[in-house]
Amino acid sequence: MPQSLITRRAFGTVSAVSVAAVCAPALVRAQTDGAMLGRVTVAVGGQGVLYHLPLALADALGYFRVEGLEVVVRDFAAGALAQQAVQEGAADVCSGAFEHVLRAHVRGQSYRALVLQGRAPQLALGVSLRSLPAYKDLGDLAGRRIGVSSVGSSTHLAASLMLVRAGLSPRDVAFVGVGSGTNAMNALRSGQVHALCHADPIMTLLEQKADTRIVGDLRSLKAAQELVGSGTLPAGSLYAPQSFLQKQPAQAQALVNGIVHALKWLQTAGPADLVKAVPAAYLMGDRGLYLAAFGRVRETFSPNGLMPDDGPATALRILARVQPELAEAKVELARTYTNDLVRKARQKYSV
């Protein structure tokens, strides 16, 4: 597939605010002496993927530090492993899929989403043309190996949903945890797995190398709407144990302020701004490819960080499609998220 041409118009008009924001780290260092609120550790599954871009921008642009907070990001191969790190006390907060919050409540663990980063799964399913040259439809994946970041992660759920929609059962395939980044790509190219469900820019890179065919795509709002039928599907979020909210409310507010600030920056950022702001390693050696991938998912980032009123119920309903036992689960949805911190952040940054 030819690489998409990304123009400045496609990314929106670059405002003076967005240009100045690229220089924020230097300004912050000049204005802030140390992190007054101390250190918070955030666990992430696949730090370099676009799914976590708001977190990456808030960190790179110095938005956390201007709030008086030092944020340390710990990267894990998958979202399920990142949540495990929080559960075990190795991290304070997790950046990951909202469905992890719901699953935790079913297990009797009290987690709460603090701010929404994405409103669509931002994931795609690709088939290796080397391993399955005669591929016709999803039915051809029966008995095959599908790579996901890890079993139990959002990539696993997304692939399962696509299979169910095609009339298959998740039990008809073998899911293999392949991590993220080059490990995930190599697993597909080497034949370790026949298909891969993952995030961008990984899937765009595989697709543009012409050895992978995208057969399931959840990287747009339209695709997400087709998946859920009705309602809004929350995806990437920053979530934490209820105990963190109770013991460190100032730190929680500072985290949300940083993410909301980054989401506002994304509304007007141009391509030059983006490639300057994100760490070079995230570009995977190809700025054009990264920008093409970003163009595909840009609309799916939350414009303001608010959890939609129908979001938690929609997410639980979708989760029950692949885990029917959850349909009868008693989850107090109002306790799975809070919009209070986001409302305060929106007032501060006029979002």
UniProtKB/TrEMBL annotation:
Spans through the membrane: none
> Gene3D superfamilies annotated for this entry?
Periplasmic binding protein-like II
- Domain SsuA/THI5-like, by residue range, is 51-266
Q: Does the keyword Signal apply?
A: yes
Superkingdom: Bacteria
Cellular location of this protein?
Answer: Periplasm
Q: Which InterPro entries match?
A: SsuA/THI5 (IPR015168)
Please give the GO cellular component terms listed in this UniProt entry. Answer: periplasmic space
Q: Which UniProt keywords apply?
A: Signal
Picking any one GO biological process from the record gives: alkanesulfonate transmembrane transport
- The keyword Ligase is assigned to this record: no
Identify one Pfam family in the record.
NMT1
The family classification in the record reads: Belongs to the bacterial solute-binding protein SsuA/TauA family.
> Could you identify this protein by its name?
ABC transporter substrate-binding protein
Organism this protein belongs to: Acidovorax kalamii
